[in-house]
Amino acid sequence: MNTTDNSLLATLALKKLAANKTYRDLFLQSETLRDFLRPAALRYIISEDRLEMLDKLGALLEKGYRTGVEFVGEEATTLAEVTTATDEYLKLIDLIAQHPKLEEPPQLGFDLSNVGTIISRELAIENCSKILTHAADKDIGVIISMERSQWTDSILDIFLQLSGRFPNVGITLQAQLNRTPDDLGAVLETGCKVRLVKGVYAEPAAIALPRGNALNERYLGLLDRINGGRGPFAFATQDPQLVEEILTSRIADRGELEMLHGVRPELIQKVKNQGQVKARVSAVYGINWYLHLLHRVAEFPQNIFLALDDVASPRASETATHY
Q1: Which residues form the Proline dehydrogenase domain (predicted)?
Q2: What distance in Å separates the CA atoms of residue 89 and residue 128, rounded to the nearest whole number?
Q3: Beta partners for 51?
Q4: What are phi and psi of 283, to 5 degrees?
Q5: pTM, rounded to two decimals
């Protein structure tokens, strides 16, 4: 078995662990497990604390980056969990508006399953509308994340309904899904912001492309169509080769590069300094970071060695100093 095969196996294994609800619940119940993994997570989460997170976003803004933030969590199954997530965003919006160093507010993001879709479509729409209304009052944009393929129809249906009422809402599309080229037309007609990602979830081969040249070609084709639309957009990727091809081809000069906090900061710093496109650092905060950590390691399985080193030799978080 070659190195590529080993990396693919490691990626699939990490994604299965991330999706396992039993392990995710155990993580939330075990303070000891969280303490053990926290040094590795701090490479990727901006903070567990809301106020510290806002200060760190302010530091990134001062360095010339746009910012984005998400309260970590997805697939909430109880009304209490859904209410906690919704209330967190409403509080966060007020704090952003009051923060002295956030003249350009961060873009907010969340999974619809974190605000109610598992319980009911109506609950998710109600909570999402609350957040969007409050965010619009503060001139804050909100982008809905895309989740596992089983939720795609529901997410797009809710987005398309909300887009007519809330111009500050945007949507994430996954290039890996075979349906996305067909979904894109209706999304572009809204004029709302589109964030294009490759897609992080392990999906069946019948409905999605694996990582590789075919996926990169589809990503570029979708991005070219999005660039030809009238709405704002972001190409969200940590792939240096893909970023270089996008910038060289100039198919996204109207958009912005969005990268996750803690992943290849030297790449987004280079793009920001070149000035061809705007650069946005998208961060997550909170304590429910199990899935986020495993997904970041799964994107490049060699990162498991960094994670082991972080756990063995904990260091203080150095957010913004690497950007």
Answers
A1: 57-284
A2: 10
A3: none
A4: -115, 160
A5: 0.89
